[in-house]
Amino acid sequence: MIDVIRIIFEKQIFSICIIMKKQIFSIFGAVALIAAVSACRGSQSAADDSQQLECIAYVWEDDGPVPPADMVTAINYLAAHPNATFDGVAINNVPRLRQLLDLKKQNPELRVILSMGGAGDASGWSEMICNDELRARFVADCKNIVDEYGLDGLDFDWEFPASKEEEAKYVSLFKEVREALGADKRVTAAAGLFGNGFDLKEAMKYLDYINLMSYDMGWQAPYHHTSLRRSPLSGVCTIEESLDSCIAHGAQYKDIVLGLAFYGRGNGAEFKNWTDYRDIHLGQGMEERWDSIACVPYIVDSLGTLIVGYENPRSLEIKCDYIKEKGLKGGMYWRSELDNDSLDLTRTVARCLIGK
Fold this sequence. Notes:
Layout: H1 2-41, E1 54-60, E2 74-82, E3 89-91, H2 94-102, E4 111-119, H3 125-129, H4 132-149, E5 153-159, H5 164-181, E6 186-191, H6 200-203, E7 209-212, H7 239-248, E8 256-261, E9 263-266, E10 274-276, E11 287-291, E12 296-300, E13 306-309, H8 313-326, E14 330-334, H9 344-354
Parallel strand pairs: 1-2, 1-14, 2-4, 4-5, 5-6, 6-7, 7-8, 8-14
Antiparallel strand pairs: 2-3, 9-10, 9-13, 11-12, 12-13
Helix pairs in contact: 4-5, 8-9
């Protein structure tokens, strides 16, 4: 009888131990989940509900959908560059510019800014920047087009000066354009992900803010190109590292508008090297995964290899929280036409940054 009682008692003790073990593992699992979420969410310690954040859409010169007027604070229309004689501004697709300006009738607070791009030796920037006479004519034309079209400012997106002389002359251009346009117009510039392209500390004497191109940081799959923090799948840079570099080069958090990508970077096979968000869909043998450190989604093939990295509403909401946490100026996205027909990304950014 005593042996029977002992066996029953031992079984009960064993059952209790199993239950306790399961509970402990459940607790550890919950802690791990909370830690992963916390890594993406951040502390929010610097958030300020009264802060007026920027929600800026870049719009390309080709015809296509435009962002809803009430879901953005500004539109940067990237459709201009130095003209063929390097002494003025050439604007592509002026009717589209007028279409964007018409959005101000729906939202009088909306700012429409002409963005001037160009890359490489054939862009005309170097010839104009390094010649004081040509640069003076260019600045005068900047003033003329702002007045003619009723623009709210100019954004400079030269990628990138190739020497210290060009960098210094670029900042001189910012100064001269600021003097020509006055304090009530915006003068902004795009900065490389390491805060490169010009002297940030000196430039901020004349710029309202910089638009940080915090994407293409891993370039192509099998790496993320929009990592918030460094994970094994991150590329050459992350957003945290990019901001650290900008601060080290003389910018302040309040000077920076964070870049958000409405496109993915694929492997060139299942997904194009550049794939619009609207075209990112699961195919046969593919699986969507979430990187809880980099705080971004990605798709893998049947072997588990990352074949496209991108943003989705979840990751953009986390980045918007990060913008508030760090006290950044706001967010900008490249670009509005790449969203899906439901405007899932556009709506997410507008809701999180400006409450729309």
